[in-house]
Amino acid sequence: xxxxxxxxxxxxxxxxxxxxxxxxxxxxxxxxxxxxxxxxxxxxxxxxxxxxxxxxxxxxxxxxxxxxxxxxxxxxxxxxxxxxxxxxxxxxxxxxxxxxxxxxxxxxxxxxxxxxxxxxxxxxxxxxxxxxxxxxxxxxxxxxxxxxxxxxxxxxxxxxxxxxxxxxxxxxxxxxxxxxxxxxxxxxxxxxxxxxxxxxxxxxxxxxxxxxxxxxxxxxxxxxxxxxxxxxxxxxxxxxxxxxxxxxxxxxxxxxxxxxxxxxxxxxxxxxxxxxxxxxxxxxxxxxxxxxxxxxxxxxxxxxxxxxxxxxxxxxxxxxxxxxxxxxxxxxxxxxxxxxxxxxxxxxxxxxxxxxxxxxxxxxxxxxxxxxxxxxxxxxxxxxxxxxxxxxxxxxxxxxxxxxxxxxxxxxxxxxxxxxxxxxxxxxxxxxxxxxxxxxxxxxxxxxxxxxxxxxxxxxxxxxxxxxxxxxxxxxxxxxx
Length: 481
Prior knowledge:
Domain RagB/SusD: 357-440
Shape: globular
Largest sheet: 2 strands, antiparallel
CATH topology: Serine Threonine Protein Phosphatase 5, Tetratricopeptide repeat
Number of domains: 1
Subcellular location: Cell outer membrane
Number of strands: 8
Family: Belongs to the SusD family.
Order of helices and strands: HHHHHHEHHHEEHHHHEHEHEEEHHHHH
Radius of gyration: 22 Å
Signal peptide: 1-26
Domain SusD-like N-terminal: 93-240
Distance between the termini: 52 Å
């Protein structure tokens, strides 16, 4: 596959850079101590396009790096932790069992500490990239614009993850102050910043993405990298939360999927394991091969796949009531009773994802953008176009689909259900939508742990890690009270 060959050409450069940059303290190595002969200085890293691009590639490799445990392993573990908190999927007593039971939010717990540390570490990487490129005397202005735009997109993306994980819904409490904002890389002498109101965090996210969109191009090395469409798609997601510019959300989504929903949504992934980024419907993905593999850390496939050899944990099942929302002719109806178990929650598994040790991970797809456009059209009062967009996806997935005639709240409910059906297992869409719309999550009795989340429940966000409170004199001890 051409994508894998391109990335393999850079492997030795990437690994050599990662060997001398520590993940947390890379800025300390080459910004504070440029004479350190054991490291790589900023002059070297940001001295030409090849090394800058290798540094960026290294950042993207960290998206799926193996960290402390199976459920703390990069972006996909953040996404799957959200996924398993809903009603549609059911987790056996295996990895992610505490996320599934909503027993994961205390300030010393692994989920809380990992999601915080990982996201802020990625922000630090982005800030290191922005500063290094800005100060470089070797890069031309066009290169600087593009690399800084990549850094701003990364920074916005991970501040968005922090806001989703550690704060209430924006429109519930925009003044709540829980996240420090950092616009420069950390150094050994850095003191933690005070927290900022959630409205300011979102203002930074939006401004970073809008600035990046202006300077990014359509071209990139491969789908693991950021281009204009990726930044546009992230901003479209953010606007689903802010809910203050549906027109922009629609135009951004259209730009990403190309404007023709019928030609955008066909996917080669259903029924083939959802594992190959060459699918033209995928916009952004985490690349993986047998050499650069997350091995058994790779959610969702390592948990949802019960059939492949090797199939590691066989831990995730599908709610029978969710299965019932798929018609028999829907190509996404990949559920069956494998075990014939008398245990209600173990009735259905899904073959959507295949575990192969080199499956790619989808981060963004065109079908999501079509559904964002449909939702935006609904909110702008354009129910006819919303029906058309919804049917473009439904009719591709199911030849017997019938065009919706729903109006009002029923139409919005149908769009949100279609988001769940299209993206279950991928990025926590059910939890994301419940939080932003201030909806409850009411689990069916079939669940192994039947816990219901009222709208705006504190279980929709995590506490601030105790280690951050202890280390940062500008965060008050009462922040988790």
